[in-house]
């Protein structure tokens, strides 16, 4: 999910909506599942990704399709207030339409069954209660494969001291059987739950992986494709094979268990925990304080003991691994002893912007790099820089976003023997420009999406809130 576009406040919306400006038909390309076109659209994506990465022409390719309907676990909708009355609608905006015309969403078959259940119930609640409705400009749904759900109501007015709102919102949360989060400027309150989060269960190589996912922090939006991505990464891009039952085949080891794994941009441990089965030790780094704390909780929930998390960004991690590195307080606090690690495999799943120069330089020193990307264009740029030292042996396309231009891709890179790093060009910074080769004019979305603005968000202690603050 990416950075949200600014939404006009209620006062800036027209007093009424022209019928031709908001019809069900206008929203069809953003909401409908054109299942008869799915296979051809997926093939077009595969062809586009292969054209972007000529270095993978001799690689073993895999294509992982999505369910054709009810696949999306995270959905955000703007709320359009028509005049001053009770008539309001969910709306979306077409990123290809510069006029920013609101498109009414009546239903959303791309959303999972739980999202489809909740959408009309939440809208009816807003329509029927002026306190809940007043200046609510966005509704967010965060659901999981196991059925856990968070509904977020976002307001253009203060709600922190509104006891009437809290009473009504808490009643709604219990009726819907969800965790309900209320947001206004620099304020967040969690109702009917211990924290603003959901619980997910992924099935990876015949084993369950239990994960907390935080509201406002990145998580994979397509759960079934996420399971395929994690499985692929965990076996290092090599398809698991079994002469008896391929479905139950165990994940092959990415490397010998005598070696260790470094992961950058680890988030809540979505990849970390399943991949840890294949390594002696794992060091995973993440810049988000909230996600780092969540990742540690997920370790405990899965009884994993060979992983250490540290709150570092990619450049800090690269700097810390230099021979003459200064001490890093956060590594010390996490009791990380770098000298005890034999890091030979690197896993990265970076934001849409791709790897920064420090991460490219670090990757060149690893024997094996497993790279999963939500932006094939920046993946192609990074692969070009890594091609001075590595070859692609395996590659994959994951259709996280059916019926859009977007997909995810992965490559497994092996370092060539005898490479002299002193002769390799210095990593270069990527120019900031709008994507044209892959995503057309559609604005890219990165992993920072759905997060609060920088700065502290005041957390209201309600319903046993554990205070997972966004900072």
From TrEMBL:
GO MF entries: rRNA binding; tRNA (uracil(54)-C5)-methyltransferase activity, S-adenosyl methionine-dependent; tRNA binding
InterPro entries listed in its UniProt record: MeTrfase_TrmA_AS, SAM-dependent_MTases_sf, TrmA_MeTrfase, U5_MeTrfase_fam
Stored Pfam families: tRNA_U5-meth_tr
Superkingdom of source: Eukaryota
BP-aspect Gene Ontology terms: methylation; tRNA processing
Keyword Methyltransferase: yes
Skewed-composition ranges (Basic residues): 430-446
Positions of region (Disordered): 1-21, 423-471
List of residues binding S-adenosyl-L-methionine: 220, 265, 286, 349
Keyword Cytoplasm: no
A single cellular component GO annotation: cytosol
Residues annotated as the enzyme's active site: 374, 374 (nucleophile)
Record keywords, A-Z: Methyltransferase, S-adenosyl-L-methionine, Transferase, tRNA processing
Bias (Low complexity): 9-20
Family membership: Belongs to the class I-like SAM-binding methyltransferase superfamily. RNA M5U methyltransferase family.
UniProt cross-references to NCBIfam families, sorted A to Z: trmA_only
Official protein name in the record: Uncharacterized protein
Species in which this protein is naturally found: Pelagomonas calceolata
Organism lineage string: Eukaryota, Sar, Stramenopiles, Ochrophyta, Pelagophyceae
């Amino acid at each position: 999910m990416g950075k949200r576009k600014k939404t006009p406040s209620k006062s800036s919306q027209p007093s009424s909506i022209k019928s031709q400006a908001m019809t069900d038909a206008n929203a069809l390309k953003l909401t409908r599942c054109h299942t008869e076109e799915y296979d051809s659209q997926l093939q077009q994506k595969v062809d586009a990704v292969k054209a972007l990465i000529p270095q993978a022409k001799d690689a073993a390719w895999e294509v992982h399709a999505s369910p054709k309907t009810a696949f999306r676990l995270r959905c955000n909708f703007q709320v359009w207030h028509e005049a001053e009355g009770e008539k309001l609608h969910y709306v979306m905006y077409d990123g290809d339409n510069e006029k920013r015309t609101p498109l009414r969403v009546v239903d959303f078959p791309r959303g999972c069954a739980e999202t489809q259940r909740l959408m009309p119930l939440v809208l009816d609640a807003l329509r029927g209660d002026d306190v809940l409705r007043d200046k609510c400009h966005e509704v967010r749904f965060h659901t999981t494969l196991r059925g856990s759900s968070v509904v977020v109501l976002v307001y253009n007015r203060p709600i922190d001291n509104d006891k009437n709102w809290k009473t009504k919102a808490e009643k709604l949360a219990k009726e819907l059987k969800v965790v309900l989060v209320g947001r206004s400027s620099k304020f967040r309150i969690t109702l009917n739950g211990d924290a603003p989060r959901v619980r997910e269960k992924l099935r990876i190589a015949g084993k369950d992986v239990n994960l907390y996912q935080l509201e406002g922090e990145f998580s994979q939006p397509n759960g079934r494709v996420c399971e395929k991505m994690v499985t692929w990464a965990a076996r290092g891009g090599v398809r698991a094979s079994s002469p008896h039952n391929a479905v139950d085949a165990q994940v092959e080891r990415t490397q010998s268990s005598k070696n260790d794994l470094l992961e950058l941009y680890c988030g809540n441990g979505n990849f970390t925990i399943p991949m840890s089965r294949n390594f002696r030790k794992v060091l995973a780094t993440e810049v988000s304080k909230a996600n780092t704390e969540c990742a540690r909780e997920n370790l405990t929930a899965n009884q994993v003991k060979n992983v250490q998390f540290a709150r570092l960004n990619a450049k800090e991690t690269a700097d810390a691994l230099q021979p003459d590195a200064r001490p890093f307080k956060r590594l010390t606090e996490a009791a990380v002893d770098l000298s005890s690690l034999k890091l030979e495999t690197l896993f990265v799943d970076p934001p849409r912007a791709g790897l920064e120069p420090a991460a490219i330089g670090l990757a060149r020193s690893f024997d094996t790099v497993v790279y999963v990307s939500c932006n094939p264009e920046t993946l192609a740029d990074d692969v070009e820089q890594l091609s001075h030292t590595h070859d692609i042996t395996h590659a994959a396309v994951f259709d996280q976003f059916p019926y859009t231009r977007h997909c995810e891709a992965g490559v497994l890179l092996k370092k060539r023997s005898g490479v002299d790093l002193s002769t390799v060009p210095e990593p270069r910074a990527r120019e900031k420009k709008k994507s044209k080769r892959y995503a057309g004019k559609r604005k890219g979305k990165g992993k920072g999406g759905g997060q609060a603005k920088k700065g502290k968000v005041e957390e209201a202690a309600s319903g046993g809130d554990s205070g997972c603050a966004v900072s």
